[in-house]
Write a sequence for this structure.
């Protein structure tokens, strides 16, 4: 069960946004990721609890940020309920999309499990519902993902397979690269892996 810490920053000007302390693990029904997010001051800023099935579909999502809450799952596309900080207003949403996304690295892992790309295969288009900080406002986005290469890197625990993905935002044309080993994101825009207690899990 990998445990560790990501540092979060603005991908454009690198302003520190805090840290995400996580643990994750594959299980008999898929994969689960749980994290606590802290602000640069060290104060609690939110949490992520995401479970996906063996096909990469979100079977349970719970997000907290700035006293806002989102609960969601893959039902008729994706369906979610967003609750305001007072707890008096809840709005339900449904979009014919494939999965959820957001600032947490959990969503990058989940998207790769959903797409199951192979090196050299054509880019695959995916529609996602993104929950944007700090109020978890939902926004539907379209991306294309391609697996550029998989390379083995030597480590103290033996070779580590690292996948390099190219992700294009289809609305803006913005392109970036993501490096993933198993169920851990090594580097991506807006985040860096700062500490990892145990090696990444490998998926069957």
């Amino acid at each position: 069960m990998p445990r560790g810490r990501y540092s979060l920053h603005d991908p454009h000007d690198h302003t520190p946004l805090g840290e995400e302390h996580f643990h994750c693990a594959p299980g008999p029904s898929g994969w689960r990721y749980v994290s606590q997010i802290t602000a640069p001051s060290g104060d609690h800023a939110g949490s992520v609890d995401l479970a996906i099935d063996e096909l990469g579909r979100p079977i349970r999502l719970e997000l907290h940020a700035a006293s806002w809450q989102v609960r969601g799952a893959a039902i008729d596309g994706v369906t979610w309920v967003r609750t305001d900080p007072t707890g008096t207003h809840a709005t339900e949403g449904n979009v014919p999309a494939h999965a959820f996304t957001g600032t947490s690295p959990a969503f990058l892992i989940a998207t790769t499990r959903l797409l199951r790309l192979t090196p050299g295969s054509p880019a695959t288009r995916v529609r996602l519902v993104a929950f944007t900080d700090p109020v978890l406002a939902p926004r539907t986005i379209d991306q294309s993902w391609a697996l550029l290469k998989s390379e083995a890197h030597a480590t103290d625990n033996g070779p580590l397979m690292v996948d390099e993905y190219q992700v294009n935002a289809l609305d803006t044309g913005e392109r970036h690269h993501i490096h993933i080993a198993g169920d851990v994101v090594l580097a991506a825009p807006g985040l860096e892996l700062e500490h990892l207690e145990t090696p990444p899990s490998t998926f069957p």
Summary: The chain has a mean pLDDT of 94. The two ends are 15 Å apart (CA to CA).
